[in-house]
UniProtKB/TrEMBL annotation:
This is Probable 2-phosphosulfolactate phosphatase. SUPFAM superfamilies: ComB-like (SSF142823). Its cofactor is Mg(2+). The lineage of its organism: Bacteria, Bacillati, Bacillota, Bacilli, Bacillales. The keyword Magnesium applies. The keyword Hydrolase applies. Belongs to the ComB family. Keywords: Hydrolase, Magnesium. One of its GO terms (molecular function) is magnesium ion binding. It catalyses: (2R)-O-phospho-3-sulfolactate + H2O = (2R)-3-sulfolactate + phosphate. It comes from Paenibacillus phyllosphaerae.
Length: 236
């Protein structure tokens, strides 16, 4: 198995995704929120690229959710904080979600054979699902404001470590993947501090959302593996 890591959504190209399993990573916060929503009982999460598209796709009973530049979109029921997606709010409801980077990355991955949503919260379960699909893997880090996000790279390194544990010596990585694997090994004992020190973490702290960072830094607290089926992420 070969694993490639793409540093930002803008670096994603069709040829790098075809016939592979894509794992989209947006730790702060889109993929962490998607995992939380589905684990809380949402019947599906529809990722869309624009606010207008979200409003157009919303049906009676749906929840519109999303953010722009870390702030909740005006008129939407929910933002992009995992704490908002409780069972009381989302159970048996469809969520239409648009975010600055994460949902764009999911759309960029549509040429892959399989598309999974990964984060620190479901890293081992996501790695196991990817290993069982027996395809080469692309880890697509969504990034932040079109730049590499430290927290996504950390998660990529963790997922690589877990895939290696499942597949043994039959795993090769590209250079960036090797670097992210090393980064995770260095930072694994201070995950919360690492996320809080990154650009996105600092931005969320300024907005009063530091507890979101701490929530998203929880490793393997979930077994949920969102998989794109048609236009909707559902539990595999």
């Amino acid at each position: 198995m070969h694993i490639e890591v793409i540093s930002t959504v803008n670096e994603a190209r069709e040829g790098r995704l075809a016939q592979r399993t894509a794992i989209v990573i947006d730790v702060l916060r889109a993929t962490s929120t998607i995992v939380t929503a589905l684990e809380a009982g949402a019947c599906g999460v529809v990722p869309v690229e624009t606010v207008l598209e979200a409003r157009a796709l919303g049906r009676s009973g749906d929840l519109l959710a999303g953010e722009r530049f870390c702030r909740k979109i005006a008129g939407f029921e929910l933002g992009n904080s995992p704490y908002e997606f409780t069972p009381e709010v989302v159970r048996n409801r469809r969520v239409v979600l648009t975010t600055t980077n994460g949902t764009r990355a999911l759309h960029k991955s549509l040429r892959a054979d399989h598309v999974l949503a990964g984060c620190l919260m479901n890293a081992t379960a996501c790695a196991k699902a990817a290993a069982e699909l027996r395809r080469d893997v692309v880890l697509l880090c969504a990034g932040s404001h079109d730049e590499f996000a430290l927290e996504d790279g950390l998660c990529a390194g963790l997922i690589i470590s877990k895939i290696k544990s499942f597949c043994g010596q039959n795993v090769e990585t590209d250079d960036f993947g090797t670097a992210m694997h090393g980064f995770y090994q260095h930072a694994q004992h201070n995950v919360v501090g690492t996320l809080l020190s990154g650009t996105t973490g600092k931005r969320l702290i300024k907005l009063g959302c530091s507890r979101d960072v701490e929530r998203c830094a929880q490793i393997d607290c979930s077994q949920a593996v969102p998989r794109l089926q048609g236009d909707t992420l559902q539990l595999s």
